[in-house]
Amino acid sequence: MQEAHLKSKKLLIALIISLICGLGLGVWYARYTQHQTIKHEYSFSSTPTIFVHGWTGTGRSEEPLFASAQSLGIAKRHMIIYMRPNGKLKIKGHLTAKMKNPIVQVIFKNNRAGEIKDAHWLLKIMRVLKTKYHVNKYNAVGHSMGSYAWVYYNMLVGNSAKYPKLERAVLIGGPYDGIIDNHKLNQPQNPPLSKLWDDQPNENHLLKNGRPAIIRPEYQKLLAIRSRFPKQAEVLNIYGDLLNGSNSDGVITIPSARSLGYLIKNEVRSYHELRVTGANAQHSKLHEYNLTVNKALTNFIWGKNKAIN
């Protein structure tokens, strides 16, 4: 009787050990399969991808955009650059040629300075990345005014040898030709222009050639120097449509966001647009763990086939 009980106990222990080993093997195999899939579908290089937030953005604003890519091991944040209001930089982290798909996050401590000031701050940031960290090429991601800042910055520098060269850009909810009720934003750098940049739902539209019918001052700035945008760049323009009749994401109208096409579509290697619809297309929700946006961004920046749908 005692011998039978001992055999049953040993059998139970053996069964438990087998189950644990089986589960462990299953977890290992799942991770191995995922790793192999990622290696097959995504490219890895030392080219950094630089994220820039929009109006009133903080350190947490852009993290949701790369959280999934980081959790899957596709990319990893290695540097945060803080731009102080006095124009001085504080850099946390570092970059090396051995890193694979490093992420750099830019945080403007004065997050209400506006898109023109942000673009000029990018001049200093990118110059430091070139001279101190030997960054020769990069990918750009921007949301809202961060998108405008990237476009204006790239038109200012073009392909100057003093700055890194742009490879791919994902621009989300960019206000290129107006913001709904822009004058309500506190923009001390250009109060005379604030009302001139006002947009309203269904007030503007794009002509057959993509040019907006109403040209606002901030768009005119870009229009004057659009030919300087880097020719080798590949650009994905993401915009929102709430499907509520406003033809907007609640902050940026579709004509304003899509007016980027007229500026650079014929200047770059490739230009794509992605329309996000429904409640998750609201301006702020475009960068808050938005599965559609995150999938398109990850595939376009790091994917081998750059599929956006």
Q: How does this model look, in words?
A:
The chain crosses the membrane at residues 12-30. InterPro entries: AB_hydrolase_fold, DUF915_hydro-like. GO terms for molecular function: hydrolase activity. It holds the Pfam family DUF915. This is Hydrolase. With 309 residues, the chain is of the alpha/beta class. It has one domain (42-302): Alpha/Beta hydrolase fold, catalytic domain (Rossmann fold, 3-Layer(aba) Sandwich), CATH 3.40.50.1820. Helices cover 37% and strands 19% of the residues. The chain has nine helices and ten strands. It has helices at 2-41, 63-71, 115-131, 145-157, 191-194, 217-224, 254-258, 260-264, 291-302; strands spanning 49-52, 76-83, 89-93, 102-108, 137-143, 165-172, 179-180, 198-199, 234-241, 270-277. The protein has an eight-stranded mixed beta sheet, sandwiched between helices. It has a two-stranded parallel ribbon with strand order 7-8. α2 crosses α9 and α3 packs across α4 (145-157). The protein is globular, with a radius of gyration of 24 Å. The N and C termini lie far apart (66 Å).
